[in-house]
Structure formats: C-alpha cells, structure tokens
C-alpha cells in the first residue's frame, strides 16, 4: 500500500509538485504518467524519503519511509539505475546490499537469476554494464529484501523489447502475488500493457486517477482513411469531433458505427476502423496533460486497502 496525501514540493517560488494525492493498493500495478518536468521524480523521491515535502505526507505500508526500521524489507526502490558504483561487480553490489538489509546471501543468487543476470554478467564491473543490464541490476536490488511494495522510476529505460516483455511479466507476477507496484514511465504503451491503475500528472498536479479500463472507456473510435482530408471533412459534416493521432489516424469522439456511416455517406474508403483502446492512452495523456490541473479527471475512487 502506498499513499500520497496532499504532497507539495516548492523550490523557491516554483511548485514542482502541488497537492498530489493518490493511493496504490496491493495486487495492483499503478502506472505513473506525465510529460517531462511534470513532477514524477519529485513525487517518487518524496515517497522514498529522499526529498522532504514542503507540505503533505507520504506513507508506504502505513508508515513514512524515513520511519521504516529497515525500509528495503518493505519497499524496493529503483530511482536511478545509473547510480551504481562503477568499480563494483553486480554481485558485489548485491552482496553489500544484502548485508545492509540483513537478508541471507543466497538471496543474491536468486535475484540475479530472477532478473536474468547470469553467466559472466554478475562478475563484471557495473561500469561495463549496458543501460539494460544496469536496469536489471537495479531491479534485482529492489527485489533483494523481498519487499511488498516496488517503486520504480522509468524501469524500462534501456531495455530491449525482450527485456521490456520480461519486466512486464515480472511486475505482473509481483502484483498478482499481492504486491503493490508504482512505476513511472514515458512509455505509454508499455504502461498500458502492464498497469491496472493509472495516475497521470501534469504541471505538478494529478490530472487523472483511476482504473485503466475506466480512464480509457469511451475514448472513442480510431479511424484511418485513404484520403485523410476527405475523411476529416466527412466527420466534421456529421458533427463528430476529431483529433489527429501521432501516426496519422484520427481519434473520433463517437461510436465506430457513427464514424463508419459518416465515411460511407461521403464515399471515403477506410483503411482502419476500431474502438480507440491503444490510441486511447496516448490521447488521454496528451489531452489531460495539456489541459493542465484545472480539470481533474477521477474515474473512480481508489479503493482503500490497508496493508
Ligand atoms: N532540486 C530541484 N531544484 C529546483 N527545481 C527542481 C528540482 N528538482 C526538480 N525541479 C523542478 O521541478 C519540476 C518537476 O521535476 P521532476 O524531475 O519531478 O519531473 P519529472 O516528471 O520527473 O520529469 P522527467 O520525466 O523529465 O524526469 C521541474 O520543473 C524541475 O525543473
């Protein structure tokens, strides 16, 4: 269980984070989304006791991070995979961390296997690791103390497609066993594939908070025509609002039937016509983060689950 309650962080006159509240419950993966500079890292740092909030409070498993007697046994954190000592091997990094956490040494081998750092990789200095290997080591370190909560900042950064697929499975399994996962990412489709809950932040404030299904429900129809201009004109004449997507299709505020009929009436050939889904998250993200904090979008109250 993670809880952020009215978290605010000011640097001088600038508010990096303003009145941010959300909860993440056991058994769920929460995607924490927002454009550059939105306040994601600052929020995660406040959750993990690295940045003191100007006001508000954050707890993990009911306790402020700094008050947890042995935090790594409760919450696994990966905020900056590059922050490893470059002269130590992956195995050394984990062995030292295991000693600090008071976990058995055999756990080091377990987590190395779990993250796929096998063969010669554990013995190599981390300075020679690729970004993907550093991410895997960071995830191994986060898992070392068998925590019930994971807080990960951009964990897919530097992972190849196979690595991203692997990480998705790992996080899903962690949550399915009752764990709580909060992960920030710019990779919207990656988040969409693994998260069941979304918190979107823009300009330092929460602009959407709810289950993925609810936030994406009613996100409209995705349509692509042979003649894009003719299609736009046909939809406008039918009174349907459209927004272009990044890959040249149109997201329409209307049902697939209404869009299909409008196109047919105008004799426009369609190449694609479907419920938005995949495009929905990108559109939601762009719309909400551009709209700013004024219009907070709560799909559903977040369940209060004590842990
Ligand atoms: N130590 C600091 N001093 C002053 N301003 C800061 C500090 N840390 C963050 N900020 C500012 O707070 C805002 C939020 O930054 P933050 O790093 O939390 O955003 P982010 O969503 O994580 O962005 P990114 O995805 O680019 O990492 C930014 O405008 C940033 O410049």
UniProtKB/TrEMBL annotation:
UniProt key word RNA-binding: no
ABC transporter domain segment(s): 2-228
Pfam families: ABC_tran
Keyword match Metal-binding: no
InterPro entries: AAA+_ATPase (IPR003593), ABC_transporter-like_ATP-bd (IPR003439), ABC_transporter-like_CS (IPR017871), P-loop_NTPase (IPR027417)
A molecular function (GO) term: ATP binding
Signal peptide (from-to): none
SUPFAM superfamilies cross-referenced by the UniProt entry: P-loop containing nucleoside triphosphate hydrolases
Keywords: ATP-binding, Nucleotide-binding, Transport
PROSITE patterns the record matches: ABC_TRANSPORTER_1, ABC_TRANSPORTER_2
Similarity field: Belongs to the ABC transporter superfamily.
This protein's name: ATP-binding cassette domain-containing protein
Species per Swiss-Prot/TrEMBL record: Vallicoccus soli
């Amino acid at each position: 269980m993670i809880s952020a309650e009215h978290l605010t962080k000011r640097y001088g006159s600038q508010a990096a984070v303003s009145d941010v509240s959300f909860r993440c419950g056991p058994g769920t993966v929460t995607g924490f989304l927002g454009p550059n500079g939105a306040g994601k890292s600052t929020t995660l740092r406040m959750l993990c006791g690295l940045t003191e909030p100007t006001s508000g409070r954050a707890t993990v498993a009911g306790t402020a991070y700094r008050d947890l007697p042995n935090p790594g046994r409760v919450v696994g954190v990966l905020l900056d995979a590059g922050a490893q000592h470059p002269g130590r091997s992956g195995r050394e990094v984990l062995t030292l961390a295991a000693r600090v956490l008071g976990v058995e040494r055999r756990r080091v081998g377990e987590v190395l296997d779990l993250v796929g750092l096998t063969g010669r990789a554990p013995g190599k200095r981390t300075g020679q690791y690729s970004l993907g290997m550093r991410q895997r080591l960071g995830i191994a370190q986060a898992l070392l103390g068998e925590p019930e909560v994971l807080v990960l900042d951009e964990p897919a950064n530097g992972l190849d497609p196979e690595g991203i697929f692997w990480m998705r499975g790992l996080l899903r399994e962690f949550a399915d066993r009752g764990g709580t996962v909060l992960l920030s990412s710019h990779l919207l489709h990656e988040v969409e594939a693994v998260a069941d809950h979304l918190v979107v932040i823009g300009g330092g404030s929460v602009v959407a908070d709810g289950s993925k299904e609810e936030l994406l429900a009613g996100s409209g129809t995705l349509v692509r025509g042979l003649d894009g201009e003719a299609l736009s004109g046909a939809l406008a004449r039918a009174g349907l609002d459209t927004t272009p997507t990044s890959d040249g299709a149109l997201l329409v505020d209307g049902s697939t039937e209404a869009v299909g009929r409008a196109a047919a009436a105008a004799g426009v050939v369609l190449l694609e016509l479907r419920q938005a889904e995949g495009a929905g998250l990108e559109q939601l993200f762009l719309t909400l983060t551009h709209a700013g904090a004024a219009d907070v979008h709560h799909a559903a109250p977040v369940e209060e689950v004590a842990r």
